[in-house]
């Protein structure tokens, strides 16, 4: 069951365990992913459908791999009204939030004729990977597709593995329809990543690939990075809750379990200044555990990567939170906005007793694709910026170049790049003539 940590030694040991969480020997998997990627790159559709038949559905081929917009619409129409409303509301809130992230091209014109600026343009084609199998993740569709649409990406290609009978879950197709996916293909695994990266006779080559997947998908994304861009190499899910004596132990326990149930490597940590709260939360976690269906997963994650850490002050609690740099950070405290000023590293920050992490997963609007494993120290959530590129704009008249020309020449010569210096010097010499 979840442990309470009070000593410095126990805290350091637990933090070391968190640091190596998810660090597994991927050598065998990486070789398998590379083989798949290489074959699809060279043999295209032939290899793509061979792997699809082997692992997903043997009946899928070039003639039926693509899902029509009409089929997406039909899937949406078959959903129960409450789910239709939920997906539509979620999509609207996600779009509204991401609209505020949009950047515009800008130009700065000076009186001497110097013009500097930045041009913002969307990527042309983006691939979105959505896990398949028995699970259905319509929220993943919305979170990956809508920022791309807001950015102005014209062609969004979604790939997701079909079941053995060649079907896709209606929830995923409905979400694709609502989000505005251009086209959907019934392929998955490392072979789908390779197809998006290099293109086949059936699958278009894209500029960037986003979306979660299993270890083969993750390693395939790493393999094709450089030929195309990717979002990130995601690690196991995690939540960290900073709480004081005002927190509701039942709420906190439920929130910890909401992440611990993801998989055996999931982490759920409570940092609190109240020993009384710590003990109450420990009891509530044990009580909830008895009625949870995913006990095998919960028992592993709770025993290895979950803990309640008691800190002497809110200041030290925030310092520890910043050191961990969690994917999800809840501030279950009396004055959350005051504590927020002390937080530097977190993927998403949930303020107050009535902002549990699942609000962000499904309905709030900010993206739930977040940096994991401490990478919130330098990575940000998925957003509109991930689907644009920026070009610098420079224009100098003769009058603008002359005053800084000698400095450019001197700078270039200091780096022993004499042709660089010459490029400017010949223009200065022309002015002398």
From TrEMBL:
What Pfam families would the database entry show? Histidinol_dh
Task: Note the InterPro entries from the entry.
Answer: Ald_DH/histidinol_DH (IPR016161), Histidinol_DH_CS (IPR001692), Histidinol_DH_monofunct (IPR022695), Hstdl_DH (IPR012131)
Protein name according to UniProt:
Histidinol dehydrogenase
Active site residues according to the UniProt entry:
327-328
Function text: Catalyzes the sequential NAD-dependent oxidations of L-histidinol to L-histidinaldehyde and then to L-histidine.
Domain of life, per UniProt, equals Bacteria
* GO-annotated cellular components: cytosol
The leader peptide range reads: none
Residues reported in the UniProt entry to bind NAD(+): 129, 191, 214
Q: In which pathway does it act?
A: Amino-acid biosynthesis; L-histidine biosynthesis; L-histidine from 5-phospho-alpha-D-ribose 1-diphosphate: step 9/9
Its top-level enzyme class, in one word, is oxidoreductase
Enzyme Commission number(s): 1.1.1.23
Q: Where does Zn(2+) bind?
A: 259, 262, 361, 420
- Which biological process annotations from GO are given for this protein? L-histidine biosynthetic process
Where does this protein hold substrate? 237, 259, 262, 328, 361, 415, 420
Source species:
Cellulosilyticum lentocellum (strain ATCC 49066 / DSM 5427 / NCIMB 11756 / RHM5) (Clostridium lentocellum)
Cofactor(s) recorded in Swiss-Prot or TrEMBL: Zn(2+)
Q: Does the keyword Amino-acid biosynthesis apply?
A: yes
């Amino acid at each position: 069951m979840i442990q309470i940590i009070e000593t410095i030694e126990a805290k350091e040991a637990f933090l070391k365990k968190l640091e190596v969480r998810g660090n597994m020997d991927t050598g065998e998997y990486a070789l398998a992913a590379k083989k798949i990627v290489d074959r699809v790159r060279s043999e295209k559709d032939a290899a793509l459908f061979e792997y699809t038949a082997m692992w997903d559905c043997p009946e899928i081929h070039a003639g039926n791999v693509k899902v029509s917009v009409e089929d997406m619409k039909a899937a949406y129409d078959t959903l129960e009204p409450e789910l239709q409303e939920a997906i539509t509301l979620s999509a609207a809130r996600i779009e509204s939030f991401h609209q505020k992230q949009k950047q515009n091209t800008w130009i700065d014109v000076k009186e001497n004729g110097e013009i500097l600026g930045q041009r913002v343009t969307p990527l042309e084609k983006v691939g979105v990977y959505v896990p398949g199998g028995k699970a259905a993740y319509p929220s993943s569709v919305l979170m990956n597709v809508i920022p791309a649409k807001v950015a102005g990406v014209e062609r969004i290609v979604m790939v997701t593995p079909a079941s053995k009978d060649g079907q896709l879950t209606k929830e995923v197709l409905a979400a694709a329809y609502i989000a505005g996916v251009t086209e959907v293909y019934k392929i998955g695994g490392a072979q789908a990543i390779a197809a998006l990266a290099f293109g086949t006779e059936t699958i278009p080559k894209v500029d960037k690939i986003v979306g979660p997947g299993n270890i083969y998908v993750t390693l395939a994304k790493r393999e094709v990075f450089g030929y195309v861009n990717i979002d990130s190499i995601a690690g196991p899910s995690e939540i960290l809750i900073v709480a004081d004596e005002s927190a509701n132990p039942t709420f906190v326990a439920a929130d910890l379990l909401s992440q611990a149930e993801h998989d055996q490597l999931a982490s759920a940590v409570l940092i609190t200044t109240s020993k009384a709260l710590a003990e109450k939360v420990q009891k509530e976690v044990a009580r909830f555990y008895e009625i949870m269906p995913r006990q095998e997963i919960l028992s592993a994650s709770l025993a290895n990567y979950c803990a309640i850490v008691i800190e002497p002050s809110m200041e030290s609690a925030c310092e520890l939170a910043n050191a961990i740099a969690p994917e999800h950070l809840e501030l279950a405290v009396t004055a959350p906005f005051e504590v927020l000023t002390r937080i530097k590293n977190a993927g998403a920050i949930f303020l107050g007793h009535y902002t549990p992490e699942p609000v962000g997963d499904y309905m709030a609007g900010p993206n739930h694709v977040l940096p994991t494993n401490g990478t919130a120290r330098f990575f940000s959530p998925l957003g509109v910026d991930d689907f644009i590129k920026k070009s610098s704009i420079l224009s100098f008249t003769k009058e603008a170049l002359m005053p800084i020309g000698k400095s450019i020449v001197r700078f270039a010569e200091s780096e022993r790049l004499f042709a660089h210096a010459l490029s400017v010097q010949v223009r200065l010499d022309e002015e002398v003539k």
